[in-house]
Every structure is written in structure tokens, then in C-alpha cells.
Specification:
With 66 residues, this protein is mainly α. It has helices at 2-8, 10-30, 35-49. The model has no long low-confidence stretch (mean pLDDT 92).
């Protein structure tokens, strides 16, 4: 539960954006089949950019971050 609270905070939002960008960059840098990693990286990047925590509803928390 504390992980979900952290991910809903501003610091968690920043972490999701950075992690998503890292996955996108690594996927493009490695190329080939690794481009799939870039597509997967869009999920945490967009979740952070739009301030939503996709795991929060599973533990009864609001989807939108603080």
C-alpha cells in the first residue's frame, strides 16, 4: 500500500516519467526487437505525464494522483 501512495505522489510521478523515458531511449538505442521496449516505456511515461497511477484502483485508491 505504501508503494501505491508513493507512486501517487509528485516524486512517484517524476520517477514514472524518468523510467518511461529511459525505457524509450534504451529501446530506440538498441533497435530491432528492442523497439518493443520503447512501446512498453510509453505506459509509465504517459501515466506519469497525465498524473495517473494505474495500480491504485486495485487497492481501493483513486486513479488520479495527488
Amino acid at each position: 500500500m505504501s508503494l501505491i501512495k508513493f507512486m501517487s505522489s509528485s516524486a512517484g510521478r517524476l520517477l514514472r516519467v524518468i523510467a518511461g523515458l529511459a525505457l524509450i531511449v534504451i529501446g530506440f538505442a538498441l533497435g530491432g526487437g528492442w523497439l518493443t521496449l520503447s512501446i512498453v516505456g510509453l505506459i509509465p511515461f504517459l501515466a506519469g505525464a497525465f498524473n495517473v497511477c494505474l495500480l491504485a484502483p486495485f487497492v481501493g485508491q483513486p486513479l488520479k494522483g495527488r
